[in-house]
């Protein structure tokens, strides 16, 4: 549709000159005062990769730059640093049928530990499989052998024979990790082609105990960084590119909840698997649960933290030392044990043959006993 423009032309219709008018009086016009300028509101400082506060750039005009509204640094350099040490693992297992055997395919992730080809992954990824293939970001694929596995922590170490030294991951100290810290998860999510999947989130909680069909997992990080099938065994890294956790479990019935074993718990286990092919843990001969306020009220305990003994191994060290079902262990060698995660972390720092002092509560009375640990079979 075309717009119609109407032009109006003003013109004179007579030749008689106009009568001149008297000159107007001169009036001085004073302009009104200008309003006081209001300072521009500065946006809050944004977090940077090293934790320092960085003020967003403010261009002329007082409005913050659009790119600063995201409030997050790019993690492209971090991904480039970590990615070469992330392995994709494919496995093949055989299921026995009534008339035929069926071959199943599975996938997981791994972290390169040594230039010589040691790779850590989850035990459930490679348990009871017939073949293991490790695919590296450089495009190379290798067959792998199992060095050792640990069902308690769900960790395993496998070995490949690379043609050249490999890029290894940098493990950090997970003790300083705080709830709310940014983390990045990398792994072979859903076995998709094109290299590891990268997701980002925060540490949602620390010290979680997670119950799985394979047993309880202790001292776990909870994160909302997306962890999917195939991520198992991949790294959870901080913004410095350090591995502070190994992705292990997810809750399929929940959204945004995944779990990773902390690096400080994982490193001693990895070292033992490489050196001995298994984890050299001591055995105390008991099972227990965390004491919660609800349990304390139900059984009339006068403590709200500790480890309640739920089962004793017949003839085991704990039973021989006089501990009984229902006792609440509160200290191990003078160190408080508020839950099973702390109790086991302390227990596993000892060796077979060591004698430890246990403080416990029985019928709301404190007692002590000495337990000599034995080697776990």
Quick structural gist:
The chain is mainly β and 377 residues long. Helix content is 12%, strand content 36%.
Descriptive labels:
6 helices; Thrombin, subunit H; Pdz3 Domain; mainly beta
Protein described:
By secondary structure, the chain is mainly beta. The protein has 3 domains: 81-95 and 105-159, Trypsin-like serine proteases (Thrombin, subunit H), CATH 2.40.10.10; 174-276, Thrombin, subunit H, CATH 2.40.10; 282-375, Roll (Pdz3 Domain). Helices cover 12% and strands 36% of the residues. The chain is built from 6 helices and 23 strands. The chain has helices at 76-82, 123-126, 263-276, 293-299, 317-320, 340-347, and strands at 46-47, 53-54, 86-96, 101-112, 118-122, 131-135, 141-143, 145-150, 155-159, 182-187, 197-212, 215-223, 235-237, 243-250, 258-262, 282-283, 286-290, 307-312, 328-332, 335-336, 355-362, 365-372, 374-375. The protein has a 7-stranded antiparallel β-sheet with strand order 7-6-3-4-5-9-8. Strand 3 and strand 4 (101-112) form a beta hairpin. The model is unreliable at 1-30, 38-44 and 46-69 (pLDDT under 50).
